[in-house]
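Researcher: We plan to redesign the surface later, but first we want a full-length starting point. Tokens attached.
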């Protein structure tokens, strides 16, 4: 992962929020870009190609994408840099008609119960990642991260159990 040389934060999640083809005046595709977002709302110091200050941003290219030169957490990069920068990516396929509902309850011992309610018949996907202590930056975690995940249906039947 070469994120540090581009001014991106190492060991940090970014969201891929769009893909665009920039075309010349003849309609030929000349650049393929992805739009990435830092969920913390800051562009940081991204200095790779197609950052907000890149000289290649002509008025014609800016008109082809949702362009804004501000520190809003959103920036562009060419697809080749994207592929070379990240060693893994995950796809979340969300639909506008999906209904979501969650809430968390923490008991006196610090354990957290997260309840997902699914009030309508729909496909459900839940992924929970438990990271070991060595995966957290210094000072962000002070004990091993572990847990039990159970999937229980509305009738109280256990559908799955995993321990991490």
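Model: Full-length starting sequence:
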């Amino acid at each position: 992962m070469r994120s540090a040389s581009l001014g991106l934060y190492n060991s940090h999640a970014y969201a891929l929020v769009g893909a665009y083809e920039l075309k010349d005046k003849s309609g030929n595709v000349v650049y393929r870009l992805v739009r990435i977002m830092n969920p913390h709302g800051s562009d940081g110091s991204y200095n790779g190609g197609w950052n907000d200050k890149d000289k290649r941003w002509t008025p014609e290219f800016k008109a082809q994408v949702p362009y804004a030169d501000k520190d809003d957490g959103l920036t562009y990069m060419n697809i080749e840099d994207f592929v070379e920068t990240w060693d893994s990516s995950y796809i979340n396929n969300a639909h506008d008609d999906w209904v979501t509902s969650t809430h968390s309850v923490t008991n006196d011992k610090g354990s957290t119960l997260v309840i997902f309610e699914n009030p309508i018949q729909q496909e459900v996907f839940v992924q929970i990642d438990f990271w070991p202590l060595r995966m957290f930056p210094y000072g962000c975690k002070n004990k091993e991260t572990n847990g039990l995940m159970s999937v229980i249906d509305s009738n109280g039947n256990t559908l799955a159990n995993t321990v991490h």
